[in-house]
């Protein structure tokens, strides 16, 4: 049994959860293990991570990272970002209503309206990070359910060389369990929860692993979660309006036709839906509740949903002299949010309505916003065999992304609280579209100078072409049609040195770069305009040194690091004589 806290802006509501789990598996042969005694305790197995796109012990990776095992996540009931983010040093999660969340590592953010996310997210070999102001990059971080995950890796510091765009501050990587060819297995989990002064909820999780012969296996994961609400709206006579539900699943098929060749086809889908993006209404400066504690007041509810879909084909082929990996992915993000924008737009529109109709009715305004981002990526890597004096890696990457965001407005009858879809005046809105296409090549080499000391260096060149298109209509959008392309190339590098003072103690030093891409501003060019037509990429240069150690047969791990980050050409939103644009700061 555990407890957690769900916080409003001022007050909070406590939650209580109870979880039960089961697992079963066919017997599996185990290698003989050395007997243990009280004087010779068994060692805890070290976690193997793929931070450098090859399997390594955490003690051998020359950077600051945290690895959370799937077993520990389930044991602690940490199925969402909200549940484990606070346990990772340097990682913060900034909520953006029901839409999603923005991840921040080591404080590198310009707020919830950032143009590009400063943290890249991967699911196995698939990058799930959008680019550009319409790509919703700052808050489409996938909140993947962690049931039946192998582990989560959080890499602190820029990771531009191996992971490319948006790894300016670091990386969050979900690693799922591959199908097991050797045995049948199944597991499940059931939980119930309640909020003090709010509603109740539950969650269900299940997994089945099916060997289909000795060369093919299937693994299926499904889950559903109902999160209880705790925000009320007395003006509409509603309670617990911020309840939310999440459901989804993963399917993975592994085929090994011969030694050294594996083909894995995976698909994942998740839908998060909510009745109301409800936050406690507070006064601007004192933050005191304006309605009541844990309460709000709006004319209409603000429902919405977020859908994530990820499809991947990974081919891993061990040649006689190297290893070849190909990863082909398609990702899709679709969302819908309807909000009450009365406080923002009604003061502008109601005087216009009054002059046209001859009567002053305080109409509200609804703002529906459908959005989406679809992306195809391809990465190919060729790497040397392990345990060589010189280990190397070569790779190429391609991404093709299309993003959209639509904004519509409709008046709200203040008496009936009905949305007036057939209002005689078109209050207007906007259509936003962008495209992003990237080509990149990268290389990395690690020279084992001695059995205990090695140095590594790598670089990546990325080139992107973008377009941004905006169309306005109606009273608010006018008739403007804006569009502009951009093109840019970025080079990033990394280098490090590591020394194993003892098998269980390693010191390292690292210098690395990361970046987020630049892009076009959608503006009408004029002769005297001071607004930049495009904004440039933003980069970080990180100097880091640290010590890692494992003690007491790996039962205790310790890590100390110091770092200095230089953030250059920070991307910021600015206003120029009423025009909004993205600029590069100092």
Structure description:
It is a single chain. It is built from 5 helices and 31 strands. The protein has helices at residues 70-75, 81-84, 160-163, 342-357, 474-477, and strands spanning 2-7, 12-25, 48-49, 56-57, 65-69, 91-96, 100-105, 119-123, 126-127, 149-156, 170-176, 185-195, 200-211, 216-227, 244-258, 261-274, 304-318, 322-340, 364-384, 390-408, 410-412, 429-448, 453-473, 481-502, 505-516, 519-520, 534-535, 538-551, 556-568, 571-576, 579-584. The chain has an 18-stranded antiparallel beta sheet that branches. The protein has a 5-stranded mixed beta sheet with strand order 5-10-11-8-9. A two-stranded antiparallel ribbon has the order 3-4. The longest helix is centred in the middle third of the chain and has 16 residues, at 342-357. The relative contact order is 0.12.
List the helices and strands and how they pair.
Blueprint: E1 2-7, E2 12-25, E3 48-49, E4 56-57, E5 65-69, H1 70-75, H2 81-84, E6 91-96, E7 100-105, E8 119-123, E9 126-127, E10 149-156, H3 160-163, E11 170-176, E12 185-195, E13 200-211, E14 216-227, E15 244-258, E16 261-274, E17 304-318, E18 322-340, H4 342-357, E19 364-384, E20 390-408, E21 410-412, E22 429-448, E23 453-473, H5 474-477, E24 481-502, E25 505-516, E26 519-520, E27 534-535, E28 538-551, E29 556-568, E30 571-576, E31 579-584
Parallel strand pairs: 8-11
Antiparallel strand pairs: 1-2, 2-12, 3-4, 5-10, 6-7, 8-9, 10-11, 12-13, 13-14, 14-15, 15-16, 16-17, 17-18, 18-19, 19-20, 19-21, 20-22, 22-23, 23-24, 24-25, 25-28, 26-27, 28-29, 30-31
């Amino acid at each position: 049994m555990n407890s957690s806290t769900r916080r409003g802006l001022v007050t909070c509501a406590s939650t209580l959860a109870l979880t039960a789990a089961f697992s079963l598996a066919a017997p599996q042969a185990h290698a003989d293990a050395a007997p243990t005694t009280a004087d010779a305790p068994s060692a805890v197995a070290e976690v193997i991570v793929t931070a450098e796109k090859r399997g390594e012990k955490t003690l051998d990776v020359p950077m600051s990272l945290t690895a959370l095992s799937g077993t520990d996540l389930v044991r602690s009931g940490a199925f969402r970002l909200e549940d484990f983010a606070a346990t990772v040093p340097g990682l913060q999660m900034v909520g953006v209503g029901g839409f999603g969340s923005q991840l921040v590592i080591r404080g590198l953010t310009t707020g919830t309206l950032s143009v590009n996310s400063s943290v890249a997210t991967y699911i196995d070999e698939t990058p799930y990070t959008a680019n550009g102001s319409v790509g919703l990059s700052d808050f489409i971080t996938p909140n993947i359910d962690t049931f039946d995950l192998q582990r989560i890796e959080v890499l602190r510091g820029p990771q531009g060389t191996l992971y490319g765009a948006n790894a300016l501050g670091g990386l969050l990587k979900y690693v799922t369990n591959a199908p097991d060819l050797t045995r049948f297995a199944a597991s499940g989990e059931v939980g119930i929860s309640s909020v003090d002064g709010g509603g109740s909820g539950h969650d269900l999780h299940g997994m089945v692993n099916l060997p289909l012969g000795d060369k093919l296996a299937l693994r299926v994961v499904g889950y559903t979660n109902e999160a209880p609400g705790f925000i009320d709206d007395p003006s509409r006579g509603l309670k617990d309006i911020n309840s939310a539900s999440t459901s989804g699943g993963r399917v993975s098929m592994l085929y090994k036709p011969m030694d050294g060749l594996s083909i894995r086809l995976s698909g994942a889908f998740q839908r998060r839906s909510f009745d109301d993006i409800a936050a406690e209404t507070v006064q601007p400066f004192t933050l005191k509740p304006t309605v009541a504690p844990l309460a709000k007041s709006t004319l209409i509810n603000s429902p919405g949903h977020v859908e994530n879909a990820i499809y991947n084909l990974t081919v891993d082929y061990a040649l006689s002299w190297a290893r070849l990996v190909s990863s082909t992915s398609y990702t899709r993000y679709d969302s819908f949010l309807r909000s009450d924008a009365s406080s923002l737009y009604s003061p502008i529109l109601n005087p216009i309505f009054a002059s046209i109709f001859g009567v002053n009715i305080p109409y509200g305004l609804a703002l529906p916003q459908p959005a989406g981002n679809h992306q195809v990526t391809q990465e190919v890597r060729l790497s040397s065999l392990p345990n060589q004096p010189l280990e190397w890696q070569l790779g190429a990457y391609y991404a093709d992304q299309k993003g959209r965001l639509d904004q519509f407005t409709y008046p709200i009858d203040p008496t009936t609280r009905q949305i007036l879809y057939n209002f005689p005046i078109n209050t207007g809105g906007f259509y936003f579209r962008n495209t992003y296409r990237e080509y990149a090549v990268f290389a990395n080499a690690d020279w084992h100078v001695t059995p205990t000391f090695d140095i590594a260096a790598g670089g990546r060149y990325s080139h992107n072409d973008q377009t941004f298109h905006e169309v306005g209509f109606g009273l608010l959008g006018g008739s403007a049609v804006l569009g502009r392309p951009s093109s840019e190339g970025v080079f990033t590098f990394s280098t490090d040195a590591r020394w194993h003072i003892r098998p269980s103690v390693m010191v390292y030093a690292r210098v690395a770069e990361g970046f987020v891409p630049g892009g076009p501003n959608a503006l009408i060019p004029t002769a005297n305009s001071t607004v930049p037509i495009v904004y440039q990429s933003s980069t970080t240069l990180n100097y880091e040194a640290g010590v890692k150690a494992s003690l007491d047969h790996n039962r205790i791990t310790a890590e100390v690091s110091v770092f200095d980050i230089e953030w250059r050409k920070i991307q910021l939103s600015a206003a120029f004589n009423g025009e909004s644009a993205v600029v590069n700061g100092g």
